[in-house]
Each structure stands twice: as C-alpha cells, then as structure tokens.
Amino acid sequence: MKRTAGRAIAGTTPRTPLQGQMWGGLIVGGGRPDLTPRSTVLAFHLTHVRYSQTKMAPRPTGRRADAPVIASRPQPLVRDYSRAAAPPYTVEFDLRTTYDFVFSLSDDAGSTEDLPEADRRWLAAAKATLPETVASDFKTLFASELAVIVAGLAVDRPDVTSAAGLLELVRASEPDMISRLMFAEATRDPEQRPLVERATAGDAEAIAELTCDYPDLKRDVMVRFVTDPPAMKKALAGVLQTWLPHFQEIEHRVKEILDRDVEMRGSDIRRLAPVDLVEKTTGGLRYVSERGVRRVILAPSYFARPYNMVLSADDWRLFGYPVADAAIAGDDALAPPQSVLRLHRALGDDTRLRILKLLTDGDRYLTEIASQLELSKPTIKHHLALLRSAGLVTVTEEGGMTYYSLRRARLDDASVELKRFLVT
C-alpha cells in the first residue's frame, strides 16, 4: 500500500480521492516521494487464532521483568493517547490483489465461516487439483505460513498490480533476497545483524541459533531457504505458477470486493487519526510507533478473513486486514452478518466473559490473564483471538510486549447489530 500523492502510476486512471489520492490499487495519504523499486527485506507474522505467536523473532509475552505483581500494578481504565505526539508514520491503503493471491494459499484461508461457503468449496476443490509434485511444495511452503512473506515483495513495486505480476516479480528476484526474508525481523536489531549475515552465508551454528525457538516445521523450511536458496525459489515460483490460473478465475471479483471495502471506509479515512484508523480497520490492532517505520499500509483482504496478515520491512509495516461483511454481496436475506455471529459466539462462553470482566479493570498482558484465571497461556490465547475477532479486545504491541485492552464501545454494538439484522 503506498506511494506519493501527486504522481499517478503509468497506465492507471485517477479515481475519486478519499484521503490523498487513489490511483489504480493505491490510496495515498502522503509518504515516500520516490517510487523507485528497491530491494527490501521483509518479515512476516500472522495475526489470527495464535496472534501472540508471531512469525518473526519470538517476543516475550509475559510481564516485563521489573513489573510489579498484578495486585499492586495500577491498571488505567483508559490509555490516554490524545496528548501524545502525532505518530511519525503515514497510513496508506493498498487495494491490489497481489496480497490475496498469496494469502489464499495460506492454511488458514477458508478455515472459518467468515469466507462464504461457495468460495470455501471452490478453494478446497482448487487446492485438491494441484499436481502431486506441486502439492508437496505447497504443503512445505504454506503449511508453515512462511512463504506468505513473498507478498511483501510487491509493496515497493506499484507497477505490480496483479497476481500474474507478482509471479513475474518472484521469478525476477534473486534467490538470496527471498531467503533473507526469513530473518528480516532479526535484521532490524543491529546486534543480530552479524548473526544473520553468518546464517545467510551458510554458517550452521548461526542458522541453528536463529531458528532454535521456532517449531520444527518452520525451522526446517527456514533452514532450507538459507542452505539452498535457488531450490526454494524454484519451488515457490512453481506453486505460484500452478495456482495462478485458479486465482485468476476470481481475481476480478476479489478486486471489486477490495475496492468496495475501502470505498465504505471513506469517512474513517478522512476523519480518524492514524492510530485510530489502524485500530478500527484491523478490528482491534493498536499500532504503536516503531523506530524507523514511516509508513503503515492497510491492505484489504478477502481470503484473510477473519485474520490479519502482517508483513514488515525496515521502514514500513503492512496489515492485510479482513474486508468488512458489508463489502461482500450476499443473496440470502435471512443469513445473519458474520459480525453478529462472531460477536455473540464470543460472548457465549464463561471463560471469555471472565476475560472481558478482568479487562474492565485495565490492560493486561497474556501472562497476567492466564495467572488470574488459572488457565494455560495457549488456552487464553485461543479465547483472546476469538474476542479480538469479534472486535471486543484491542491488541497492542509496545516495546516488545503485547497487551490486551477492552474495546468498550464495541459492547454497545451487541444489541444494536442484532436489532438491525432482525428489524431492517
């Protein structure tokens, strides 16, 4: 999502501006004055049922080492951002289908009812037709979800506007460039860069040190990307090439959905501050400024629903957020909106209601919630993910820590949305 206000991309037709200008797949609200393609190191993590388990370098999820115990730590009911300095980043929308081309290959695509049934069936049937040789590479690359990072190659290439264009970009990229994506988050840390350099040069000890905290499947894929970059690039391009004709069957319809979603957000884009715009668009991810990040990119995604895909590089962060229910045209007038279903499913559980009650006293870290409720962290993660999917909880990453807050305004929506569905 990106680019400068004031320069149209060759071959595109200007459309009605929302904030800044929209050209082709880009809505621009300021930012980079240069559109020159450049090699960018990316990182990827997935914000979904396992939100805290980032696909970048593992981050601590517990309380800071010097934090007081729960009982003595004052919990503010509201964090006041109103007097904070303006965030040093611009927010941009990127409406290209290049991201959904890759997101549709994720194991989580179509795993919930948030994707309409017809497209869930289509997705399963299309994946089932992959040739055996490609199916093996597909499972290796996308079951680990690491290969999703390749979508970020298009961020600084506004000329890449389609799934076919992304495939050509992957083919043209150096194998080592794709391999370095695996360790991009570590590269952001100056102290880790020498270790990354040794790992990408093939140093076995460095590779082991960088990958030791990852699950076996992810670790194996990362090691293969570093030890045999050409083979892994070939495998990745092969999967994308085989998937391309399937995705092209629906690419035009997906583009219409993405356009419709951003058009519906016009009022938010014009009036909300960057931090609030990111939080509302992503359904509860509050992005606190990070050193060096100058651009926050919001990319609507049909196949990511109901999750957020997050791609990162040195100077930008991209949130592939789920398109709104209203952006998806439906034929069944009796079908309740997914937002209503998510909200009431989230509220229909004793543990989740206890979590919400706990959050009314203030922000909490994962470890604090688990300790207070005497449940395991994986169990709490699952419940928090459902609450966040329903828009009831805000997730904030700050200083390497992740904490959760109650979205009080969303509680008022429970009866309003149900009444709107039943009586209108």
What layout of secondary structure does this protein have?
Layout: E1 14-15, E2 21-23, E3 26-28, E4 42-47, E5 90-94, H1 98-103, H2 117-128, H3 132-142, H4 163-172, H5 175-180, H6 184-187, H7 193-200, H8 204-211, H9 216-227, H10 229-248, H11 251-264, H12 266-271, H13 274-282, E6 285-287, E7 295-301, E8 308-313, E9 316-322, H14 338-347, H15 350-359, E10 364-365, H16 366-373, H17 377-389, E11 393-398, E12 401-406, H18 408-411, H19 413-423
Parallel strand pairs: 5-7, 6-11, 7-9
Antiparallel strand pairs: 1-2, 2-3, 3-5, 4-8, 8-9, 10-12, 11-12
Helix pairs in contact: 3-10, 4-10, 7-8, 9-10, 14-17, 14-19, 16-17
Can you tell me about this structure?
This protein is α+β, with helices and mostly antiparallel strands and 424 residues long. It has 2 domains: 14-47 and 87-326, no CATH class; 331-423, Orthogonal Bundle (Arc Repressor Mutant, subunit A). It contains 19 helices and 12 strands. The chain has helices at residues 98-103, 117-128, 132-142, 163-172, 175-180, 184-187, 193-200, 204-211, 216-227, 229-248, 251-264, 266-271, 274-282, 338-347, 350-359, 366-373, 377-389, 408-411, 413-423, and strands at residues 14-15, 21-23, 26-28, 42-47, 90-94, 285-287, 295-301, 308-313, 316-322, 364-365, 393-398, 401-406. The strands form 2 sheets. The protein has an 8-stranded mixed beta sheet. A 4-stranded mixed beta sheet has the order 6-11-12-10.
